[in-house]
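Q: You know discrete backbone vocabularies at least as well as I do. I have my own habits and do not want them to colour yours. No explanation is needed for now; the record alone will do.
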Amino acid sequence: MKQVRLLPSATVRAACAVAVAAFAAGCAQIPRDPIIQQPMTAQPPTPMSMQAPGSIYNPGYAGRPLFEDQRPRNVGDILTIMIAENINATKSSGANTNRQGNTDFNVPTAGFLGGLFAKANLSAAGNNKFAATGGASAANTFNGTITVTVTNVLPNGNLVVSGEKQMLINQGNEFVRFSGVVNPNTISGANSVYSTQVADAKIEYSAKGYINEAETMGWLQRFFLNIAPW
């Protein structure tokens, strides 16, 4: 049996090729950054007021006065978001142009050239047409509920909220994240508000698992997709 011995330089090149392939394969599974970058929850501050000796009323209990309603207004309070997003968009455009031109004239010739160019003339014609159409449509529907936490109270009283819900289903981890700014006046008596009434709302639904990996385009396919001229 004939043995083939690799030179040191060939071994180095082979090792580099394997390392590059492994690095590219790892880049193919780099997770996308979530669109919600703020903290998903916040802890309420510890009340500083102390209970008076012999008193049955503690004004600092849960940081809420006795005769105050239970609507969220402090950091750490919770609020239920009723997600009801239904967005439809349609766009169409078109263009059509047509341009034509014709030219026909005789060429005067000298007398001694009359026999050769007696009927000489020049003519030119041109035609230019352009037609294009385009259209796009999108429809998105997202319904559900998620309970979020007040992470900050703005100077005008509006509440900055954010929250996350995780579900492990069939070896796939699904995430629902929400953040936005809520006006306390829009909160109902059931301690809930619709997502359509939340300012700067960011809603994210993503998943991790083998199904999500199967739906992700591989690095080599993305490479050829970027350099292909068609």
